[in-house]
Amino acid sequence: MSSSVTIKRGWSGFADRLFPRLSGPVIAAICITIFLFGFLILPVAKVIYVAFLDPGTGAFTLQNFGDFFSSSLFRESFFNSFYASAMSVVLATIIALPLAYITTRFEFSGSTVIQSLGFIPLIMPPFVGAVAMQLLFGRNGTINLLLADYGINIPFMEGLNGVILVQSVHYFPFILINLSTSLRNIDRSMEESAQNLGAHGFRLFRRVVFPLASPGYLAGAALVFIKVFDDLGTPLLLNVNNMLAPQAYLRITSIGISDPMGYVISFILVAFSVFSLWVSFLFMRGKDYTTTQKGGGGLARRSLSPSENLLAYAIVGLILLLVLSPHIALLLLAFGTIWSFAPLPDGYTIQNFVDMFSQSGGYIMNTLIYAGAAAFLDIILGTAIAYIVLRTKLVGRQWLDYMATAALAIPGVVLGIGYLRTFNDFDVPLIGKPLASWWVIIVIALTIRRLPYALRACMAALQQISLSLEEAAESLGATKGSTIRRVVVPLMSGGILAGFVTSFATAAVELSATLMLVSSANDAPLSYGIYVFMQTPSGRGTGAALGILAVVIVALGTLTAQFIIDKERKNRSGSEAA
Q: Helix (H, G, I), strand (E, B), or coil: what is residue 230?
């Protein structure tokens, strides 16, 4: 009898942990799991599954991969994607390393402004500035037209060179941000010890400083590699189709969703995203980067001589001129009349902006609806996941965080293909059309793609709220639901709002997934409109005006999110001081 009672109690304890009375968090966890499984795990798994199916018999096969590697076009596309990604990391490092080192190593006037300007490229999606950069650096662009008098023509934008240049200029801030942080956290005593042993100059940097900062560098480099490898919009706008992501898009849109090569390419894109993260982890595994003091003290900053100061400013000035060139070119294109075979536009006008609002009202309205709905769903999901992970003891709760964050490793084109394959035959009741061709699928794609951003903001906000505040509310008679609604959520409001703004701003310029899922021009968002306008010379001015609008949306979103975070930090510091 006693053993039976013990078994029942043991099962009861396990059941209480697994399903604690089907409370609100349990129901929320079940709903979120179903949503993530249905719109993230299942579509991606479907893509991977189809990649291994024989299109004729439906049997398991590796022949699709054999066909892929036996095709010269696909082999070339694979090599080009890998080469462009690797060279973008190299060029991005060349751009970011001097900025990071100069502004953290030396007493350099304006270093904060320089770092801020270095982050500006992130507010412009690379496909927006691709055509504008071609007008600056192309064969008949501004630079080469000025060099033509000397018989010089530099192929900045020819083929893969253009993809590498555009992507490097856009994504180098990932390396700059992470490397600058690592340099500031280096233990100064290690540098001083190396100097006492005779290490100076480049030897000190190569043997001590850079190895200690390598975790930050590798994190940024891995992000650059993945972003370039998966990007769709930039190669398409530069007419470089012999890369993996464009090939996946072209195969599915031209041949159809039954074409196995689109799925094989998608599998390779996902595999390389995961592989890149794994390699960056492998390089750091087993190595010790710890410091003996919190924060490390940073590198010992020294003053520059007048000649060194002049040289440093010259280097920084050239780099900033390069990285800000897409924004300069986009402004010229947006306000220009005709810009062709000339260093600058023939004239300037605001007509492009007038045309933008008259011809693109639908694009703008759709973007506000799609990005707004996606951001709203993201903060609901992010808040719920954060609470479940940090405030409950549900079995497997951490997997909610893992599933939501996994969206970062899934290219937009892969998610789009997965949705087309999974939901093309699923007719929406009362709508009379497949879910894959209904505009709501775009909102869902944007929600999944931007959920990790909102989730991180919500997690950070909840981690800063003391559990004692919730316990105090419950001790005064408040229910769990009332405590969440009237205590937790208001205290998280800053982080929730920051997550909403970040999700909205980045969803507004998403191209890869939306390009796959737009079924009609009436349902198209702003990013799709930019892509369409940029396809023809006559529409580039209007496309550039739309691009300016996209940049403004992202910039305002970024500044607003940063303002909210800074305000929350000041309020928290003031509360702690009081």
A: helix
pLDDT in the model for residue 290: 53
Q: How far apart are CA 443 and CA 369, in angstroms?
A: 9
pLDDT in tens, 330-383: 999 999 888 888 888 888 999 999 989 888 889 999 999 999 999 999 999 999
| Domains of the chain, CATH where assigned | 19-49+350-578 (1.10.3720.10), 92-346 (1.10.3720.10)
CA pair distance 516, 436, nearest whole angstrom: 10
With tokens 């071609």, the residue in question is 134
Residue 113 burial class via C-beta count within 10 angstroms: exposed 0-12, middle 13-18, buried 19 and up: exposed
Instruction: Give me the pLDDT at residue 295, please.
Output: 47
Q: How far apart are CA 190 and CA 180, in angstroms?
A: 17
Given pLDDT bands bounded at 50, 70 and 90, which one contains residue 475? confident
Q: Which residues on neighbouring strands pair with residue 434, listed in sequence order?
A: 427
Q: How far apart are CA 544 and CA 541, in angstroms?
A: 5
Flag whether pLDDT at 432 surpasses 70. Answer: yes
How far apart CA 316 and CA 327 sit, in angstroms, is 17
How far apart are alpha carbons 501 and 558 in whole angstroms? Answer: 7
According to the 3-state scheme, what is the secondary structure of 473-497? HHHCCCCHHHHHHHHHHHHCHHHHH
User: What 3-state DSSP class applies to 70?
Assistant: helix
pLDDT of amino acid 15 = 43
Rounded to whole angstroms, the Cα distance separating 252 from 417 reads: 8
Closest CA to 450 of 173, 38, 32, 40: 40
Q: Helix, strand, coil % (nearest 5) of the chain? A: 75, 0, 20
| CA separation for the pair 431, 229 (Å, rounded) | 37
The three-point CA angle 370-374-378 to 5° equals: 170
Quote the CA–CA distance of 89 and 84 in Å, as a whole number: 9
This prediction's pTM: 0.85
Check: CB of residue 75 under 8 Å from CB of residue 292: no
- 196-205 tens-digit pLDDT: 666 666 677 7
Count CA within 13 A, CB hemisphere, residue 127.
Answer: 30
| pLDDT recorded at residue 278 | 79
- Rounded Cα distance between 213 and 200, Å, is 17
C-alpha 250/C-alpha 11 separation (Å) is 54
List C-alpha distances in Å: 442 to 94, 248, 517: 37, 19, 6
